[in-house]
Design a protein that fits this description.
Layout (H helix, E strand, L loop, with lengths): L12 E8 L4 E4 L19 H10 L8 E5 L4 E4 L3 E9 L2 E3 L2 E2 L6 E3 L4 E4 L4 E9 L33 E4 L10 E2 L13 E5 L8 H9 L2 E3 L7 E5 L10 E6 L4 E4 L6 E3 L6 E10 L4 H5 L6 E2 L1 E4 L1 H19 L5 E2 L1
């Protein structure tokens, strides 16, 4: 665990300068899943689906480092020609003040300016650059963990005048896009599916019914670590405290306040409060695209259903990687 590695910012070709950083723009990849046994947060992107597709569109491996943009996008100046794509939330991206398509390969030339405007839907957009961002790995990942000040670009969010370098620039890739039928619709409200947790019997029966039948609102105090929900208070039969045990992304924990918390990408690895369940992996991208004020309704599903949905998603990704099927040139 060489935390000092965050002092570097890579040694590749400089290709983009940050003119404005936006609300929260960080370098991320798929995180550090192999270090949870040491108490290290997985971190990484909040919406893995959008991020993986972005990398595949520009010809990268799906875990190459890219940018996660939150609600208010940055302004970037390209200092070299580069291919890139933007997926996830629609924050109205434009190149030289001309709106550009999302989920599509775009070519930027030296001197071009990428800007973002109004948030049409979603919360987090992803920018993948062909070749990937060149920053040092910390515990086998280039992800930024803000609470620990390590990983990514110097362990922090991007700031004005930061310069990013490209690890392995590619100068000729196909102009392609994801089929419209395969682009997730983050604007349409739907239920968030979850698997029942080990402590359902620790809640009063009416509170379990309440959790399944009422809407919760995403609080302003939510962040990459966890989504705090506002709404009907859930009643414990005895107390909220338990012996600390494992927590994963998507865990729905209910502390003494009775208000649920959904653990997200930067969550810890253990916790001492009762768990109502865990959001299925295929619905985490949808949850990641919710923003404060949005409402959440839950639906309980079986483990078998959760696995079936996961297999469908992974098969879709596999088909894209096999000869770029499902892309339109």
């Amino acid at each position: 665990m060489v935390f000092g590695a965050t002092e570097g910012v890579g040694h590749g070709m400089e290709f983009v300068r940050i003119k404005k950083p936006g609300l929260l723009t960080t370098v991320q990849d798929l995180g550090r899943p192999n270090y949870r046994k040491y108490g290290v947060s997985v971190s990484g992107v909040m919406d893995q689906y959008s991020f993986r597709i972005a990398n595949l569109l520009v010809g990268n491996k799906e875990n190459e480092a890219g940018l996660e943009v939150t609600l208010i996008g940055p302004t970037l100046e390209f200092t070299e020609d580069v291919f890139f794509t933007i997926t996830g939330a629609n924050l109205t991206p434009s190149l030289n003040n001309v709106e550009i398509p999302m989920w599509s390969v775009v070519r930027a030339k030296e001197g071009d300016i990428l800007r973002f405007g109004q948030c049409v839907y979603g919360c987090r957009a992803y920018i993948a650059f062909s070749g990937g961002i060149d920053v040092p790995e910390v515990m086998d990942s280039k992800s930024t963990f803000l609470r620990g000040n390590y990983g990514g670009f110097k362990g922090r969010a991007l700031a004005k005048d930061d310069v990013l370098t490209l690890k392995d620039p590619v100068y000729n890739i196909p102009y392609r896009r994801l089929r419209s039928i395969d682009i997730p619709d983050f604007a349409v409200k739907r239920k968030v599916r979850f698997i029942g947790g080990p402590h359902e019997n620790e809640f009063e029966s009416h509170s379990v019914d309440t959790f399944l039948t009422t809407a919760y609102t995403l609080s302003n105090s939510s962040d990459r670590m966890g989504y705090r929900l506002e709404g009907e208070v859930l009643q414990h039969k005895r107390q909220a405290d338990i012996f600390s045990d494992f927590i994963a992304v998507g865990t729905i924990q209910v502390p003494g306040s009775g208000l649920p918390i959904i653990h997200m990408a930067d969550c810890g690895t253990s916790g001492g409060y009762t768990k109502m369940g865990v959001v299925i992996s295929c619905d985490i991208p949808y949850v990641a695209q919710l923003k404060p004020g949005d409402q959440i309704n839950f639906e309980k599903v079986s483990v078998e259903k959760a696995l079936d949905e996961m297999y469908k998603m992974e098969e879709f990704i596999k088909q894209i990687k096999l000869n770029n099927r499902l892309f339109i040139n």
